[in-house]
Amino acid sequence: FSVSSTATFDHNGPLMSIPWQKTIENQRHTTPPFLRCALGQADPFHEEVGYWLWDPGAGQVIRGFMVPRGVAVLAGGRAAPGARTFTLRARLGDPCFGIASNPFLHGQFRTVAYTLTVEIFGRDSFRYAEDTVLRMPGRPAPFHHTDTNTLRRCTTP
After folding, report:
1. Does residue 80 surpass a pLDDT of 50?
2. Within 10 Å of residue 90's Cβ, how many Cβ atoms?
3. Are strands 37-38 and 110-122 parallel, antiparallel or unpaired?
4. Whole-number pLDDT of residue 109
5. What are the pLDDT digits (tens) for 82-96?
6. DSSP labels, 75-143
7. pLDDT, tens digit, for every residue of 98-144?
8. What is the largest CA-CA distance in the chain?
9. Which long-range contacts (CB under 8 A, 24 or more apart) does 135-143 make?
10. Given phi > 0 = left and psi -120 to 50 = alpha, else beta, which region is 80?
11. How far is the CA of 68 from the CAs of 102, 105, 111, in angstroms?
12. What is the helix (H) or strand (E) element at residue 150, kind and residue range?
């Protein structure tokens, strides 16, 4: 089936959390629940709220987000300034780029890995491909929940 996605990015300006840390750029990211629906259906099935961070000193892109079902992800990866393609990863149990779930999801639909690859085409569009890996009772092999889309700017900043 086809899915329609809308994402909103709000620039929050540079952040400096502690005096010895370099400035980090920050954007708030949301996918409103009423805008990410299977085409032809009124009910949403996914929503995200989170942040994209760029740490130029470390050459690192970080994406943190939570979905309402009770999963939080902090994924990160390296990217040179001006990079047009980069990959972010998170793994269950990783002390830096990890995954946390509520008790029910951890027991029944455990998210064990998350990978996101982004390709930027310019100021007005980018493509993403994400793979969320789940372990579920009764399934010997991991389940790969994948999503790929190209987003284009609809309004000017």
Report:
1. yes
2. 26
3. unpaired
4. 94
5. 899 999 999 999 999
6. EEEE--TT-SEEEEEEETT-SSS-EEE-HHHHHHSEEEEEEEEEEEEETTEEEEEEEEEEE-TT-SSPE
7. 999 999 999 999 999 999 999 989 888 889 999 999 999 999 999 99
8. 51
9. 135/110, 136/108, 136/109, 136/110, 137/107, 137/108, 142/112
10. beta
11. 11, 12, 14
12. strand 143-152
Structure tokens at 29: 């990211």
Residues 6+ apart with CB under 8 A from 55: 22, 24, 61, 62
Q: Distance between CA atoms of 141 and 130, rounded to whole angstroms?
A: 19
User: Is-contact 90 112, C-beta < 8 A?
Assistant: no
d(CA 40, CA 38): 6
Amino acid 36: pLDDT: 42
